[in-house]
Amino acid sequence: MPVTHLTNGDELDALLRDNGRVVVDFFSTECPPCEALASVFEKISEKYPDVKFIKIMRQDNRDLAESFTVMSSPTVLFFKQGKMQDKRLCGRIFEAELDQAVNELMA
Q: CA–CA separation, 55 vs 6, rounded Å?
C-alpha cells in the first residue's frame, strides 16, 4: 500500500477513525535522518499491506505535532484502533527497528 501524505489534523483524524493500524512519520525538510528514513518507510509500507503508512510535514503542522508531543524530526508514531501506542521512534531510525515496531503493532 503506498504511503499517503497528509496536510492537516482533520485528515489524520478521519484516517485514524477508518483504519485499524496506522504508522505516522512526522518529517521535516532539509533533515538528513528524514531523508534516510523516506525510502525505508516506503519499503516497510509494502511489507505490511494491512497497515496505513502516513507522512506529515512537521513544520507545516506544528500544532498537530505538538499535540502528539512530537518535538523532533523524524518521529514515527504508531496507532491501533485510533489510539496512539506507547512506542515511538525518533532521530536516526534504522530499517530493522521500524520493521520490528510495525511487526509489534500487528500483534
A: 6
Nearest to 68 by CA among 84, 44, 91, 45: 84
Kindly indicate the confidence band of residue 1, based on its pLDDT and cuts at 50, 70 and 90: low
| Helices 32-47, 95-106: crossing angle, 10 deg rounding | 40
> Active-site residue among 12, 16, 23, 34?
34
Catalytic residue among 4, 20, 21, 31: 31
H, E, C per residue of 34-52: HHHHHHHHHHHHHHCCCCE
- For the segment 36-72, what is each residue's pLDDT rounded down to a tens digit? 999 999 999 999 999 999 999 999 999 999 999 999 9
